[in-house]
Fold this sequence. Notes:
Elements: H1 19-52, H2 65-88, H3 100-110, H4 113-126, E1 130-136, E2 141-147, E3 158-165, H5 172-175, H6 179-189, H7 192-202
Antiparallel strand pairs: 1-2, 1-3
Amino acid sequence: MADPKPLPFDPKSLKGISEKAMMIHHDKLYAGYVKKSDEIRQKLKEKVAAVQSGQEIEGNATYSELRALKSEETFAQNGVYLHEWYFDILGGDGASEKAPELTKAITDKWGSIEVAMKYFSACAMAARGWSVLSWDIKGGRLKHYNSDSHNQGGVWGCVPIITIDCYEHAYFLDYGSDKKAYIEDFWKNLNWQVAEQLYLKARKWVL
């Protein structure tokens, strides 16, 4: 059974986002996805064992337990991974100059880091779930995608670099309905050094 990964930063250190909100986010919500992902994995192992023993299992596409498990497998596992991508890049000081290669690639594509951040912020405002700057290993370039649900909107072949949690649970305790203020504070808390390392690793992959 997998254990939730600890936060890679001191939750007291964030600007605007309270320790209470972050700990609820991490210890309750994220940890819940880890638990459910493990539960689903165990049930799927039982299905595999049944096939190995010569049993028939139903795979009906209208409804079957197998269909439900396979559908929610992606929801739960992406709930784990997306939160980890999000937590991994928090705890910084928002200084983009600490990511020279990433900011150069962003500037080459969107014109300037300021324009890109305004665009990414607008995308995050439009997203109901996630807003993700990623590296497209098929195209060999940066791409930005929105996702309204953990298993909707993502593109296979893209590695997250900067991931913003846009669900209300990420900001409502501290900001109420002021999502814009939360997104502004997200950038103030972004650890660009970590984002740089993610980018440098990801861009080695071009298929």
